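Mods, move this if it's the wrong board.
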Amino acid sequence: MHRATRTLPIALVATVLAACGSDSNGPAPGFECLGQALPTTAPTVVNVTGMVTANVLSPSPVPHAFVYGFRTGDTTHLAGDTTNTPGQYSLAIPTDGTPVNGYLAISDSGHHIDTYAYPAVPLAADVTENVLMVSSNEFSLLAGAAGINPVAGDGFIGVVVRNCQGTSVAGATVTSMPTGTVRYNAGGLPSSTATSTAADGVAYIANVGPGNVTVQATASGHTLRQHTVNARANAITLTEIQP
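Not the wrong board. Structure tokens:
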């Protein structure tokens, strides 16, 4: 649940932080908000809207997909909806006045791999969250292009690295704890040889055991804000990393 309109290349979804001032000795352009304090209050309800699509090379709407919003650590969903024919959904998330540390869960009766979308920071304002799902066959093809041999029962995380303005960042490197197999895009598709993000800012973390995974990135000499997502067995987790 992010605070900007974006679609992850294999799905999902996050918040653009307002840039704070910088001088000639400060962070590189685009990273002026590095370390900025996060909001501590939120409206009583925040609206999460967006589209669910499928097919990486030619995205098309996914109707009748189930979309639920959860608070991290709580098994009772905060809101739910089913996508319409154009793939659109809308959730009204109650906040109790504080930013929601949570995620979206998206499924469509087994036609595509179950997908979970996490924001880079807790949700404190209305957002548009577009999610791109993939089928099992498509996932196998993409994994093959990246030189990945998926391990049954492990999780998979798709990441986009962005700067303070919400622009995807080239040349970033992504790490996780616990560690997984990290790959990046080249020419718009997963690569087995790329060593950092391309202009789309995309990275993949494959073969991580189910459970909490902390994701982090370095870009332009800066260590960006880390956060934790939950990698689920045989599912796709999507998130963004920001300053």
